[in-house]
Amino acid sequence: MGIKFNQAGLVAIGAALGVAASLHFSAVADRQATTLQLPVDDLRLFSEVFGRIKSDYVEPVEDKKLLKEAINGMLTGLDPHSAFLDQEAYRDLQVGTQGEFGGLGIEVGAEDGFVKVVAPIEDTPAFRAGIKAGDLIIKLDDTSLKGVSLSDAVKKMRGKPNTEVRLTVLRKDEAQPLDFVLRRDVIRVKSVKARMLEPGYGLVRITQFQEHTGENLVTAVNDLYKQSGGEMKGLVLDLRLNPGGLLNSAVAVSAAFLPKNALVVYTDGRTEDARMRLVASKENYVRGAFKDDYLAKMPAGSKTVPLVVLVNGASASASEIVAGALQDHKRATIIGTQTFGKGSVQTILPLPNNQAVKLTTARYYTPGGRSIQAKGIAPDHVVEDAAENRIVLREVDLQHHLAGEDDKEGKAARDAKAGKPADKVIAGTTSGPGATAPRIAPKAAPKGDKAAAEKVDPNAKKEDVQLNAALNFLKGVPIAPAPTTTAAVK
């Protein structure tokens, strides 16, 4: 049977290959071969097409290239996150989880044959240049990206620091394409940032779930408690624009605020390896059996301090796991907009010559049994921020996306049919896909020249209506819904 890496080996692709996706590393060198009934007629058709290309294509094509592209097509046709990883892509996958890589600092996905920006990473060339979530990248320098695979597009955007690249993008509501000249840099993503909002009220922002995010969270929260004299009245955990990252780090962040051994997330798939239950215990977030439990250093008040989690449409994967776990356990109130909906698990299956297959093998479910896939986490209070470009790209918008499912009853029915005991889940959740949630009207965008507004420094200080709503909520000020809406969350 295959050798299964420990649960700390679950990682997300991060910035390297687009929308962050949690990954499960599994070796298959000694896995017993599965007997397959090969479709002879379809293989004959493949052979016919292969032969026609070899004999009639306008230019000679190497067999190796044709076979590699056939493998690529076989995987990318399944869903947006399954892929073939050559040696370079496999290395990039591992580099991306360390929080340092070369490039522009853009989380991307694929749409209509082009590359679409999921979110720019803070404090990177793309963020400073004004690249926005939802931008469609159509050209790099003078090269069209139409039909270019996502991994190849990422390779083209990467390069040596201090070299320039011109991005041509289409932006919603802009009549003409926009050009941005970016200078590549070594992207070092600081995953945890914290500051006091007011006496007794603190903000912790997590930009990505990296190898040391859990430990950095402990340091940040302890610093806030020291600044407030040992007690906190409320804490805001900001996961907006967070594309995901390492799964064990997501478990750590959840465990920092949940009771010991509380269920954080579970997965369900066709194979035994694809079915896991991750709880708030050291074994599920500390890498290395002999390392100390760094969460033991969290202030005692962190388990009970009033907590708000901020999310938006670019909060994906590991971010959704944290938000869903804290929401289902009624440990935090979720404020913002519907999350991205990246709720599938990718298993890395190593191949010869340092290559691999990244294959979707399972779906994520919150402790209360909700499927995250293609749905996301619905906030308890919808607060939209019209001062920012609205994020319209979500998992459900990606071509070939894996369908979501409402698993609370579906899994119980399957387990009963299989004669398995039902999982213990939390009865009653604060909200979920299809539930109704109060909305707060966004602040109107400032009047004036639209083109001039687009050129405003993205780092310029502006009112953060979502953060203000979170702070007011912690103070006991109710979030009033807009006069005309109490609409169902999509």
TrEMBL record:
InterPro entries from the UniProt entry: ClpP/crotonase-like_dom_sf (IPR029045), CtpA/B_N (IPR055210), PDZ (IPR001478), PDZ_sf (IPR036034), Peptidase_S41A (IPR004447), Tail-specific_protease (IPR005151)
Keyword hit for Transferase = no
What residue spans carry the Basic and acidic residues bias annotation? 402-423, 446-461
By its UniProt entry, which PROSITE patterns does this protein fall under? PDZ
Residues of the signal peptide: none
Q: What is a biological process (GO) this protein takes part in? A: proteolysis
Which SUPFAM superfamilies does UniProt cross-reference here? Answer: ClpP/crotonase, PDZ domain-like
| Start and end residues of each stretch annotated as Disordered | 402-461
| Sorted UniProt keywords | Hydrolase, Protease, Serine protease
**SMART domains listed in its UniProt record:** PDZ, TSPc
Q: Which residue ranges does the record assign to the PDZ domain? A: 90-158
> Coiled-coil stretches, from where to where?
none
Classification via CDD domains: cpPDZ_CPP-like, Peptidase_S41_CPP
Gene Ontology terms: cellular component: outer membrane-bounded periplasmic space
Q: Which GO terms describe its molecular function?
A: endopeptidase activity; serine-type peptidase activity
Family membership: Belongs to the peptidase S41A family.
What name does this protein carry?
PDZ domain-containing protein
- Which species is this UniProt entry from? Usitatibacter palustris
